[in-house]
Design a protein that fits this description.
Length: 385
């Protein structure tokens, strides 16, 4: 993969694709983790006297329509404060590098016609504005858009940023260069998306711990009653194939409730009633033993509805258990996962926290990520063919 190391990028006009898609409410940023993660690459370029055109998206606005709630203005202000320098927010490519500022931030790239369609014309327009392109938005690497794919191809000098390099290095270590036992933890409500990931992880994991809707599907396939819990009927065959691997650790006790507003009760998986929902799990002794012996952990997704204190038991216990491990390489990814870590422990307790969600899962599943492909990335398994 083409990286910045050893590249003479001094005094260049650099297009820098970042993932600044942060949660914003009433103009206030609720979590600027992704902004903080972008700082090292920005500083790297500034140290080399580059002028920078930052490109990012925010949410899913309608193309060619400006909506204030999707404006990058709050991001621009936060980034300016962190760096201690003025960043100029611009609305057209023609405004880039037209004043003395060192950093320009282009308004939400998804406002522009041609971004989501990976337009050749729009990719050319961006590429012709800059001398070099640095892609440092791993969270968007699975999108074949103009700013995440087309410009990388069009610009003869395109490189992975420091964050993308770090993401790939840590995920590669967890997937291909790991120490056994490897424990994979996959939770959350995106059942069809994550069951495919579990199928891949079954081949390399010693054990897999599941939570959320995924567990519901697996329990149902084993013949247990799951009441009104979320599940996907069309994934039953996939669930059966996964269970045939015999390395899935399912809970023996769950927290079930008739609604999210009631406390719920701890009960055996055999005792869930027809009008109840499984909203959390209890970590079993078998799971605890596996976690205590783990040398590598790959984690995406909470075990229950942890945002509600009535259903935080499983995720909280998992966080505490991981934080107590002394000699274990832990990679965690996904917005909900990082929120849980921040709620119950600290990101300092985790070896590496990925900024990505969908791209994280697709990388784990073995899918080709367009942005990385355009940067010349080869997986370990491809290198060894």
């Amino acid at each position: 993969m083409r990286c910045l190391d050893g590249v003479d990028i001094n005094d260049q006009r650099v297009g820098l694709r970042l993932d600044l898609n942060v949660p914003i409410k009433n103009g206030t940023i609720l979590d600027n983790t992704r902004i903080i993660a972008s700082i090292p690459t920005i500083e790297y370029l500034l140290e080399r006297n580059c002028k920078i055109l930052i490109i990012s998206h925010l949410g899913r606005p309608k193309e060619d329509t400006f909506e204030q709630k999707y404006s990058l203005t709050p991001v621009c202000d936060d980034l300016s404060n962190i760096l201690g320098t003025k960043i100029k927010l611009i609305t057209t490519l023609d405004d880039a590098f037209q004043s003395n500022e060192k950093i320009f931030l282009l308004e939400n790239i998804r406002f522009f016609i041609g971004e989501k369609d990976n337009s050749l014309e729009f990719s050319d327009a961006v590429a012709n504005t800059i001398d070099a392109y640095v892609f440092d938005a791993f969270g968007t690497a699975h999108r074949k858009h103009a700013s995440t794919y087309g410009v990388i191809q069009k610009c003869s000098n395109s490189y992975a940023g420091l964050l993308v390099e770090k993401e790939v290095k840590n995920l590669t270590k967890a997937l291909f260069n790991f120490r056994s036992p490897l424990i994979s933890i996959i939770g959350g409500s995106k059942i069809s998306t994550k069951l495919g990931v579990i199928q891949k992880l079954c081949d390399i994991s010693d054990f897999i711990i599941t939570g959320g809707g995924i567990t519901n599907n697996l329990l149902l396939s084993k013949g247990f009653q799951i009441g009104k819990s979320i599940f996907e009927e069309e994934m039953e065959e996939t669930s059966r194939k996964i269970l045939a691997n015999n390395n899935i650790l399912l809970p023996d006790m769950v927290i079930a409730s008739k609604s999210l507003s009631t406390q719920g009760s701890l009960k055996s998986i055999e005792d869930v009633e027809s009008d109840e929902m499984i909203l959390d799990i209890r970590i079993s002794n078998e799971m605890s033993k596996a976690l205590s012996q783990a040398k590598t952990i790959l984690w995406n997704g909470p075990l229950g509805v942890f945002e509600n204190e009535n259903f935080e038991l499983g995720t909280k216990f998992l966080c505490k258990s991981i934080a107590e491990l002394d000699d274990c390489f832990v990679v965690a990814g996904g917005g909900e996962t990082i929120s849980a870590i921040n709620k119950f422990i600290s990101t300092k307790d985790i070896s590496y926290c990925s900024t990505a969600g969908g791209a994280f899962l697709e990388f784990v599943e073995g899918k080709e990520l367009p942005s990385l492909e355009a940067l010349g990335f080869k997986r370990e398994e491809e290198k060894n063919d």
